[in-house]
Amino acid sequence: MKASVIVFPGSNCDRDVKVSLEKFSIKTSMVWHADAKLPKSDLVVLPGGFSYGDYLRCGSIASKSRIMKEVIAHSKKGGLVMGICNGFQVLVESQLLPGVLIRNINLKFICKNITVKVINNKTNFTSKTSRNSVLEIPIAHNEGNYFASKDLINELEDNNQIILQYCDLTGNITEQCNPNGSIKNIAGIINKKGNVFGLMPHPERASDELLGGMDGSLIFKSLK
Asked: Domain 2-222 is classified in which CATH homologous superfamily?
C-alpha cells in the first residue's frame, strides 16, 4: 500500500503519521497543500494540527486548498481517505463527511488520553479491531464536538457509519465519559461508501510502547 500525507501550514502531526504508517510497511509521501497532483496513492491522510492557524472555522481554509481537489477526486474513485483531528475537520468542511465539528462543550482545549468503543469493525480502517473493543487513544482539540441533525444521526446509525464512540474503561457509553459534548458520544464516522474516515483521537500518538500504548496501531494495521 502507498499513502500520501497532506501537509498544510500549521500541520503538526504530519511527520508522526508518516512514522506510524511506515512502521507498518506503508510507503508514505509527504504532499504540500499547494501541490496540484497527488502521487499514486491507495490512501490519503489529512493529519492533525492547526491548518492555516484555525482561522475562520477549523479546517475551512484547508478545505479550499489546491490539493483538496485531488483528494476529493481520489475519494470519488473509491480511494481511502483518513482525517485525524484537524483532518476530520477538513473532511466535514469539504463535505466528504456529513455533520459539523464545533467548540468543545466546556469551551476549553482538551489534551488527554480517552477511551473509545469500536462500534463497527467491518471497515478498511478498523478490521484489525474487535467489535465493541475499547481503545485508549489521546485527544488534543478545541473543536471536537460533533453535531448533526436528528435525521442525520439516525441515518449514520442505520448505515453503521458511526465507527467510534467515547466510552469508559469497560465500554459503557455515558455522558460522563464524553470529553467534548459530541452527540451520541461520536468520536469517529465513515462515509456511506466506506472509504472516507474521520476521527478526533490521534492513533499516531498511541502506536508505540514508548508513547504509552499501542491501541492506535490497530488503525494502521487495518489499512493493509
From this structure: Class I glutamine amidotransferase (GATase) domain (3.40.50.880)
